[in-house]
Specification:
Length: about 240
């Protein structure tokens, strides 16, 4: 039986691309998102199962993982992709928006990883990939809170890699540059300026970011852990 990969945020954009690439790599995929997803939309519907779940419901993440394991087996890999892209200048952001952002972007993936990685440790084999952003290092106007959550995930990546590495589990992050997705659509004309400033004069494609995740999940990526792989078409060059 092929390995099971859990991917969050598969209702569109990057999460969908990551799930499709994992299927192409002959993995079984369980996708998680708040919105429904029809398996028939994937190249191999038999390899994709969708679970509707609000990852902001942190209290029930343990039950979610137990259900997935009971129905599909223990996961080989977890890709923490789901995140809120809430923007706004910090002095005018509502406290509730900040709390929600930190909950979904940091606390939720940490708790989900906690429950998934237990099974990887038992098998002495596994992969965790956290989707970060170049904003974690470069900063961007109006994304202070968002950038902070991605910086937190990169710190989490490095330390967890130390914790679980001796048991054969790797933990890495992939930091895409700006992508033309629903999350960045609000940036409008700013996207064109960002695109022109990159070394390649374009954005990295969703498929290119998914390929980076694919490498980290593969046997060829077994020696890579505790690092962040940047895929941004040279925006930070």
């Amino acid at each position: 039986m092929s390995d099971l990969v859990i991917v969050t945020g598969t209702s569109g954009g990057l999460g969908r691309a990551i799930a499709e690439q994992a299927i192409a790599d002959d993995h079984r995929v369980v996708g998680i998102s708040r919105r429904p997803v029809d398996a028939a939309e994937f190249s191999r519907p038999d390899a994709y199962t969708h679970v509707e779940f609000d990852l902001g419901d942190i209290e029930h993440i343990g039950e979610l993982v137990a259900t997935i394991v009971g129905e599909h087996g223990k996961p080989y890999a977890l890709v923490n992709n789901a995140a809120l892209g809430t923007d706004g200048l910090l002095p005018t952001m509502h406290n509730s928006d900040i709390e929600q952002l930190v909950g979904v972007n940091v606390v939720s993936p940490m708790v989900l990883t906690k429950y998934c990685v237990r099974h990887m440790l038992a098998k002495r084999r596994g992969r965790v990939v956290n989707i970060s952003s170049i904003v974690a290092r470069t900063g961007y106007r109006g994304l202070a809170a968002y950038g902070a959550t991605k910086s937190a995930m990169e710190g989490f990546t490095r330390s967890l890699a130390r914790d679980v590495g001796p048991r054969g589990v790797t933990v890495n992050a992939v930091a895409p540059g700006f992508l033309e997705t629903e999350m960045t659509s609000a940036l409008g004309d700013q996207l064109d300026r960002i695109r022109r400033r990159s070394a390649l004069g374009r954005f990295a494609g969703l498929d290119e970011v998914a390929a980076a995740v694919s490498f980290l999940l593969s046997d060829a990526g077994a020696g890579v852990t505790g690092t962040t792989l940047t895929v941004d078409a040279g925006s930070t060059a």
